[in-house]
Amino acid sequence: MKRVLTLVLPILLAALALTACGSDSGDSSGSSESTHGGDHSMSGMPSMSMSMPMSMPAGAEQPGDREIVITDFKYTLPGTFAPGEQVTVRNNDTAEHTVTADTGDLFDVEIEPGETATFTAPGQPGTFAFHCTYHPNMVGVLEVR
Q: Across 52-134, where does the E strand assignment appear?
């Protein structure tokens, strides 16, 4: 979600700025005086350029990209994790959740609403199913490579 906002928000702001600057009062006389009166000439104002990349280079990550995110009672994972990597879990819901390994005691972390928590990924490669102990319909798979 952060990535979407990071990319969409500047585009919307630029579109609004262009729309505001592109209004035409229908007067082609070249006068800098508007129909509302007063001098609104911007000839003395410095110009400003806004340049935003439209896509990220392959492999580039934004802060938060390496998080398991819980939203609307669903887990979203960023891909694979390295053995022993610190995994951050962000809970965007209004209910407490857990990330609990289905087998063994590999990982089990509780995350309060609106908070983050971390745990260490298993030290060996593999796929590790997990669930929320409070909401059994919430399941996911942690891939360690």
A: 67-71, 74-76, 80-81, 86-91, 97-101, 108-111, 116-120, 126-131
> How confident is the model over 22-73, as pLDDT tens digits?
444 444 444 443 333 444 444 444 443 333 333 333 444 444 468 999 999 9
* Overall domain count for the chain: 1
Which ranges in the chain belong to alpha helices (H)?
Answer: 2-21
Instruction: Let me know if residue 79 belongs to a domain.
Output: yes
25 vs 23: CA distance, rounded Å: 7
38 phi-psi bin (left φ>0, alpha ψ -120 to 50, beta other): left
Contact 130, 101 (CB under 8 A): yes
**Which pTM does this prediction carry?**
0.56
Residue 73 within any structural domain of the chain: yes
Give a yes or no: residue 50 inside a domain. no
* DSSP helix/strand/coil, 92: coil
* 5, two tokens: 């906002």
